[in-house]
């Protein structure tokens, strides 16, 4: 009989993740949706950085970035990524890894339009991850973009979302004496039934 009860109970890992995120939103002091995103370059050298999770959908998670950034180039090159949400206030984390597709349709347009004007103008001005001569040159470019794009800039063609469709999801909760609780949901390919295992801490 499974001992997957309490905070681990449920038949839908995305719903469990949404519940945990909801709890973190009430207890975490800053950015409960901040996640570490891991990618690899064409030589297989890994990169990791913090990004903001925007949506836990029915079968995936979505975040937004510049497609021409280092992370964007690595995701487009490999089609795979991994992430972790870690909440110190809850002493819990969620890890996912899987396949990645772009989210660049109406949903991306709607999210871009919902951002502050300064963030939208910044997305047009920043050549993310590429060398920058000075902050002054960046601010000058922002001023130029502001003059040309006005108060309602559309979404840049090189900016949008990425959707991670996981093949593996792990839920981790802190336990006494470092005897943590860990449950991993795995599947061979998208659409397969999940196989759920308890892991040693």
From TrEMBL:
Binds 1 FMN per subunit. Its cofactor is FMN. GO terms for molecular function: FMN binding; pyridoxamine phosphate oxidase activity. The keyword Iron-sulfur does not apply. Signal peptide: none annotated. GO terms for biological process: pyridoxine biosynthetic process. Keywords: Flavoprotein, FMN, Oxidoreductase, Pyridoxine biosynthesis. FMN binds at residues 49-54, 64-65, 71, 93, 128-129, 172, 182. It catalyses: pyridoxamine 5'-phosphate + O2 + H2O = pyridoxal 5'-phosphate + H2O2 + NH4(+); pyridoxine 5'-phosphate + O2 = pyridoxal 5'-phosphate + H2O2. Residues 28-147 form the Pyridoxamine 5'-phosphate oxidase N-terminal domain. Substrate binds at residues 54, 111, 115, 119, 178-180. InterPro entries: Pyridox_Oxase, Pyridox_Oxase_CS, Pyridox_Oxase_N, Pyridoxamine_oxidase_dimer_C, Split_barrel_FMN-bd. Its EC number is 1.4.3.5. Pathway: Cofactor metabolism; pyridoxal 5'-phosphate salvage; pyridoxal 5'-phosphate from pyridoxamine 5'-phosphate: step 1/1; Cofactor metabolism; pyridoxal 5'-phosphate salvage; pyridoxal 5'-phosphate from pyridoxine 5'-phosphate: step 1/1. SUPFAM superfamilies: FMN-binding split barrel (SSF50475). Homodimer. Catalyzes the oxidation of either pyridoxine 5'-phosphate (PNP) or pyridoxamine 5'-phosphate (PMP) into pyridoxal 5'-phosphate (PLP). Belongs to the pyridoxamine 5'-phosphate oxidase family. This is Pyridoxine/pyridoxamine 5'-phosphate oxidase.
